[in-house]
Amino acid sequence: MKKDKRGHELDFLKDGPWDELYVLTKYWKSDLQFYKDDLRFLKHLTEKYFIWLTKPDSLQLVKDLKDGLFRLTEKSKDLLLKVDKHLIQLGYLVEDPNREDAGVIVTEHEHLEEEMASFLISFRKNRKEVFAITEHIIDSEELANILKT
Predict the structure, then answer these.
(1) Which of 6, 33, 72, 133 is most deeply packed, by most CB within 10 A?
(2) pLDDT tens digits for 72-103?
């Protein structure tokens, strides 16, 4: 019997329950839309509050941070497209559980689940970096004094 990365048995996917997979995938879509908004906020944060930077090492940290945010934003867009397509396929399976392409859809679902998990790990790591770097830069550039005025 096939198992996912956490050791859970995936045999239940063989014949559905398609409606439950559909609901789960809708949650993924909602999460991705939230992450997209959060990434937009983090990008805004880096652009608005780091314009006063003067130290070269601070500038490089922010450049690397922006590059990471860009990559995550592109990944979230890609995942959102894949999830939308997958929702349509699952909708067809809910309507007709005996479709011939059910096995392919199950495989896609498993792959999407892995991509979502990987994205979430990267997202959380990047978010922690944004706040850690923000704190470091505010301290090292004395931006706190500038922001108070």
Answers:
(1) 72
(2) 999 999 999 999 999 999 998 888 887 788 88
